[in-house]
Each structure stands twice: as C-alpha cells, then as structure tokens.
Amino acid sequence: MALTDRTMRVEQGLRRELQRVTDAQTRDLVRAWATAWDEVATELHDALLEQLVAGDRVTRAQLMRSTRLARSLEYIADRLAELAADAGVRITADLQGVIDTTLGAQASIIDSQLPPNAKALLGVDQWSRVDPGQLEAIVRRSTEQITSLAVPLAPEAYAAVRRELIRGVAAGANPRVTARRMVRRAEKRFNGGLHRALVIARTETLDAYRAAAQAAHEADTDVLAGWVWTAELDADTCPACWSMHGRQLPTSEPGPLGHQQCRCARVPVTRSWRALGFDIDDPPSLLPDGNALFAALGEDEQRRVLGAARFEAWRAGAFPMSAWAERRTTSGWRDSYVMASAPAGFAPARSLTLAS
Which residues form the Phage head morphogenesis domain (predicted)? Predict the structure, then answer.
C-alpha cells in the first residue's frame, strides 16, 4: 500500500466535488425555508396581535380558540408538509450524479498507487466492472431512506411551533412586543425542520457516495488490499473520527460508518507492488499520521476536540487515540462510530457537537 501525493490530490478533489453538491443542497433548502417563513410570518403576527390586544392577559385556551390563529397554524402545517416533500425530492435528485462522480474517481485513486502504466495491465476500470443493478439498488435504498426520514419533518416542526405559541402568552403593557417575541420563538421551531433536512441531506448524500465507492472496490478485489478510513484532521473533527483515521478495513466492510454529517472518506488501498507481480518496492505512504497531527495542535484546540475530561485523560496517558471511538447501534439507522466516554476516574465530559 502506498498512498501517494497524487492519491491525496485526487481524493481531495473528490471531497471538494461532494462538498459542492452538499453546499448547493444547503443553499436550496435554506432558501426554500426562508421563503416559506416569510409567507406565514406576517399573518401569524397579526393573528397573535389580534388576541393579545383583546385584554391584559390571554389564556392558552383563549389563544387556541382564535379562528384566525387556527387558519395561520393550518397554513404553517401545509407549508411544512410541502417543504418536507420538496426536501426529499431535492436531496434525491443528486444521488445519481454523486454515484457517477464517485465511480469515476475510484479508478484514478487506485491508479495513483500503482507503478506507471500498471492500470491497463491490471484492468482497473470501475465503469465497466460494477454491476449496474447494484448501483440502481444504492439509488433505491438511499431514496427510500431519505424519504422515510423527511416524512416526520413536517409534523415534528409543526408540533414544536404550536407548543411555542402557547407558552407564556401574557400580553402585558405592550402586546406588539409580545407578538413579535412569540413569532421569533416560533420561527426557531419552524426552522428546526430545516436543520433536520440539512442533516439528512449531508448524511445521506455522503452515505450514497460511500456505498458507490464500496461497490467499485468490491469490483477490484484482485488489486485492492482493502480501504483506509481517512478524516479531515482539524479542530472541528470529533474524537471518533480522529481515532478511526488510518484504520485499514476489508473491501467488504461498509463505511466509513461515521456519525451524522461525518466528513470522513473511504480511500481504496492496493496490494503491495510485489504481490501484484511487479518486482519493485512500494514507495512510502503519505497518509497523514493522526497522532502526530493531534500532538501538534495547540492545547486549546486539543481541549476543543476532546472536551475537558477526555483531554485530561489523554494527557495523563490513560486515553490513547485508539480508544476515542466506539461503535453504536441505532434503531432505524445504520451503525456508527461515535466518541467514547472518558475513562473512569475522570470527571464527566461536557457534550460536544459532532462536526467532522
């Protein structure tokens, strides 16, 4: 195995293309949610104000009996349902393109690890060797997963908006201020559906890429020794991804089984040149060393990655990087590797947002 400079360049190019796809999804989803909120916010504000100016204090029951507010809530429910359905369509529209891009990159990544002109001799060509039915199955499974995840977005967001509106409805001395405050709080709940849609878009799009890459790798098991888990090694990367970086797994192993929105990649690795029949030694691999890069971070960045307890355990030698990840089974979704807890004897760590 020799991940060369060219290997890393091709892999980074694929990452950038996938980032372009997910960035476009983000822009479209954010624009759709913002437009929808603009359409409902004014009427919601006026419906609330109508009730709030009716007296010094408005009860929850009185608020919910408002015919005008009921119409506003019905409109919000309808718009959320449209947004959820449209989000599923928007995300799935990219699946085939992601798969095609992934397959096109795999042959170049493999070729980058071989001696000159070896690709033609070994017949490395994902486009002709991957079963089209297998690729169709990836699109179908991903579409079903995205659709099933998008369906609950509307009722969950609507329920959150409704709950928010019946919290603390006292008008006080300035009903207009109260109405604006209630609308702002309702907007946050409305946009909770947007946040979930963005998570689904990024997670499922990248999982489709990983499934397509696995299909390509399984078509070249005579050339490949497996694949290596690679992470973006920076202060925004979670401990689990730092830990999994550099681990080599068989081609039959799915993954990377990262957490939601995980940025990690699956990079195929070839057998040694001598095992492939070339009487020549492999050059050294240029895969970045996770332990060395983490040690080179400043202490503030290290604490940011690990949290206080994990950092103290790591610094004390009780929590090596190899122990930072644990596999979790989640009902209704695939297994994933998440950050492990600090070892016994160290204070509980604060929760961290996974952003890798």
Answer: 161-265
CB 223 within 8 A of CB 124: yes
Q: Domain residues for 213?
A: 5-220
What pLDDT score does 126 carry?
A: 45
Can you give the pLDDT at residue 345?
Answer: 81
User: CA 92, 214, 355 angle in degrees (round to 5)?
Assistant: 65
Residue 277 placed within a domain: no
Q: State what percent of residues in the chain have pLDDT above 90.
A: 68
| Number of Cβ within a 10 Å radius of residue 291 | 13
pLDDT at residue 191 in the model: 94
Other Cβ atoms closer than 10 A to 89: 12
| CA trace torsion 294, 300, 305, 307 (10° rounding) | 130
Shared domain for 235 and 159, answered yes or no, is: no
Do 301 and 258 touch, CB atoms closer than 8 A? Answer: no
- Mean pLDDT (whole number) for 23-40: 96
Residue 160 sits at the vertex; the CA angle it makes with 157 and 162, to the nearest 5 degrees, is 110
Judge whether 275 lies within some domain: no
Quick check: is 280 in a domain? Answer: no
Q: Which of 17-26, 101-110, 301-310, 315-324 has the lowest mean pLDDT?
A: 101-110
Residues 23 and 166 in one domain: yes
Q: Which two tokens stand for residue 193?
A: 């559906």
Write down which residue in 159, 186, 220 finishes a domain: 220
